[in-house]
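INTERNAL AUDIT FORM
Audit reference: QA-55
Scope: verify that the stored structure record matches its stored sequence.
Auditor: D.O.
Record contents follow.
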Amino acid sequence: MNPLTGSRRELDSVVVNIELTLASIIQGVALFFLTDNARAILSWRHWDAFLYVAAGLCVIFIFWS
């Protein structure tokens, strides 16, 4: 095995881990704002806007998977 190939695989592994970490952080921030707005909608009893909250949650879950 070439040492360059081994270091390349290790670098690829690190890059993949960084990408997954950044994606999880971005999704966590989006989920925070969605839940904060959903709490406000539920407290004001705007049930017609709850469909948008559910759609946003589905988008986050689809992106997450």
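Auditor finding: record pair retrieved intact. The radius of gyration is 19 Å.
Action required: none
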